[in-house]
Automatic annotation (TrEMBL):
Pfam families: CsbD. Belongs to the UPF0337 (CsbD) family. This is CsbD-like domain-containing protein. It comes from the Bacteria. It comes from Streptomyces cuspidosporus.
Amino acid sequence: MTAGEKAKAKTEQAKGKAKEAAGSAVGNDRMAAEGQAEKSTGDAREAKEKAKDAFKH
């Protein structure tokens, strides 16, 4: 996993988690859903990079 992609995945996950929590806290379902989607994007990016690493070794 390249350092840049790893950092990008972690950033997306953290931003998504924060946005989801904020949306839930204020009762904004749209914001919570956007946060969940952003977190999922980060999770998918991380999984893709881990798979690439597995095939390199």
